[in-house]
Amino acid sequence: MKPEISPKSEYLSIGRGRYDRETGSLLGEDGQPIHLRRQSAEVLAILAASPGEIVKRETLIETVWRDVATTDDSLIQCISDIRRALGKNVVETYPKVGYRLAVTPRASPVSEAVRYRSLIAGAVAVALSVAIAIGWWNLRIRSDSPDTETAIVPPRIVAEKTLAVLPFVNLGGGEALQYFGDGLSEDLTTDLAKIADLTVISYASSGDFPEAETGFRNIADNLGVRYLVRGTVRHSGERVRINVSLIDPIEGTNIWAERFDRVRQDPFDIQEDVTRAIVDALSLTLEAEDAPSRIAPDAYFMLLRGLAPLRENTAAGNALARDYFESALALDPDYARAHAYIAVSHGRDTMFDYTGDPGGVSIQKGLESAITAIQLDPNLPNAYLALAILNLAIGEHDKALSAARHSIRLNRNFADGYAVLAEVGVYGGNLKEALEAIQYAKRLHPHHPASYHWIEGHILFQLNDAKSASPMLEQTIELAPGFVPAAVTLAAAYSDTGDQERGRSVLNAVSSLEPDFTLAEFLEQTPYAMENRLKRLADALVVLVEN
Which domains does the chain have, with CATH numbers? Predict the structure, then answer.
């Protein structure tokens, strides 16, 4: 199917359908024609000629029935036909006066995108009112804070204070118990990241070296760090023995090594002991003194099972991850991290249209989960990450920026926090801050997901540097061929550099993968706050389909 976009087309989105004012055709959400009785269709045409304005009942009757004697009942029947076909709220009644079609005319992809975001905001008004009612913003991001809206400047990285935690190797105990070692590695990374002077690489990057027995120098060079933490876990009944070492990969020596014997069902005491021992070995001070949350161990392990599919960045992986997180909540309803990750999964549903519900149920559930997570643990960065994604999806850019910035204040090594700050920034913030944020996120997460390349390429395109954007977007498509936003942005970048042939080729490939894809609908769903940025993208794409 050829992608279509027409900036000059005038049609209305009316409830569950779309009405073309030039041809009088009416299509449903599935693209199939909606048939109305002749008189009902004429009433709709008159109302559509003045959308948002009250049309007098006398005007409707005189125009549709002309010299035929009729009563108000005939008009009411036509209004009922329209409501039955398109939704009960599409026509508003003004008793003894007339009727009003509750739509906004669509004149171009740019103006339609603005309208779309207004509809999304309305669709989730209930969710937002819930958020406001409980005062989630004041839970941690205080309105009187002088730096709430201050741009984040990534901290300077001190080479001698960089570290990565490698996956703890499971020495027996079966695959199921590997989650214990994985969880210990991940949480150790999180706790060490709280140290003010230490740069800790994301565990999602260091986790790519699961069986590293040799070659620590190469691993350190690959991750760009000075030190490595590695460990082994050996299970014996209900007890576990953990050996941990802090490695100097340049000298090939252990700076520090320790053994911990614990009961396996109490993972949090082990995590705390190991973290503080490594901190002491590095002669640093751990700023965050909060003890790890004591939650049901089985719920903790269930959450760990969900992290791997969540990182796949696919619809199937997202759904599977949420199943695991919900199972964790069934075991421990007050588990803040599970609530936060559920919120993140709903945010991804919305941003990438995994479920075909770009605004409404997923957003509301996501907001509720994020709010619950913050109430349970006000210092959880992942909860604010979810709030940033969800608020971006509904066009609340200021709140999205503040949430992303706050997630970084809570954890200066939070790569995904910097990435979402950059993503929000390209849609409705400072482009320079956004570029610095995504480049720092890549430094913290060297083996980052393909979406990081897309965010940087998107920013460069909006900075009028399509030539530099293209390689970033090409890498995204190579790693994630089905990632439509990156493909569309790449087509725009090619167009901007004068290579329309390659741009059309990219769009045709998207249409082959997504038969129902149209540029008009894609542009509707882009959450730009600034119309000039939406127009820049739309103008580059229009060239590809008009010539």
Answer: 11-107 (1.10.10.10), 109-140+297-411 (1.25.40.10), 159-281 (3.40.50.10070), 414-547 (1.25.40.10)
